[in-house]
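Milestone M4 deliverable, item 7.
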Amino acid sequence: MKIKCKFYGYPEVERMIGGKEIETEMEGKTLKDLQQLLESSYGEVLRKAFATQILKSGKEWIKINNQNHPLNNGDRLSFLNMIAGG
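Output delivered:
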């Protein structure tokens, strides 16, 4: 299945993947499967993104500790590094 991932606030990830967004093909069905695939392809720098806010297809927030959250073909995941301050 195809999953699109977009990373906001992760300059180190952007350097690693060559931009803010990637599309990947995966055989797994969960968030954990996606994390393992991306880490094996791009390195452990991607691990930080999975420990933050994740928005699925612009509608559903995935809880940080829910590694078994199911994914579907065509899902778009936004990884948001929320920065507080002012």
